[in-house]
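Batch manifest line 233
LIGAND: NJP
JOB: complex structure
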Amino acid sequence: METGKIAVVTGASRGLGSVFARVLAEEGYTVALSGRNVEGLARVAARLPGPSFAYPLDVGDSGSVAAFRDAVLERFGRLDVLVNNAGIGIFKRLEEFSPEEVDEIFRVNVRGAWAVTVAFLPQLKAARGWVMMISSDVSTRTFPTGGPYAASKFALRALARTLQQENPELRVLELRPGAVDTSFAGSTPGAPGKEWFLQPDAVAEAVRFALRLPPQARLEELVLRSSLQAPEY
Ligand code: NJP
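JOB STATUS: finished
ARTIFACT:
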């Protein structure tokens, strides 16, 4: 079931981005996959059930974002769904961070999502499209060693809400997963101790749910955690 609609997923080379791309393809979208690891993008693209397009992107680099936007618009001329998924995490006590590490978290998690969103804003508005910000259950709470990461997700939440307020024709979803079993922050999927983590496929179902809503319905925020994770607020 091809819909003629186009979706962009950032950070699609592995983890959550790869399963978001699969669900979008299953829902009939042609998916533009992006990330720095082009081999990873090609692997993910090869497994998708529908047509796709893979293009290198560092969301924190203005030139890279402009080249990616130009490539997507030259190829498809429109955009219906943007999933701002690219993100990094570094976890340690505040005094152990270098300024460069703090900058890098904000460069990717905040500036990156802002840059890709505004690059495609005219097309997203014309399509009355979705922008899905993949933030975190820590976009409203903190935990020791998570200071700059949580701060970046609080900031992403603020960007999501401002985007919605400024652009009522869009549907902006802040999707807030808890701990998910991916390669995030250098971890290994399925590693001992991660048995309680949510599986990525479960998070991707939230994207499917949003996509299937009637046009009149705007899902603004969704917290999705493993039932084995403590309910911290
Ligand atoms: O992590 P991982 P997840 N430019 O490390 C890409 C949030 N989240 O799938 O560039 C462009 O397996 C990287 O691609 P590449 C989290 O904050 C997660 O779990 O090719 N892309 C890769 O595809 C993040 O926002 C958990 O290396 C860049 C992807 O990002 C999102 O979920 C919990 C990039 C990261 O894949 C996906 O994370 C939570 C750049 N500069 C929120 N830098 C969790 N896993 O527990 C990285 O609350 N990427």
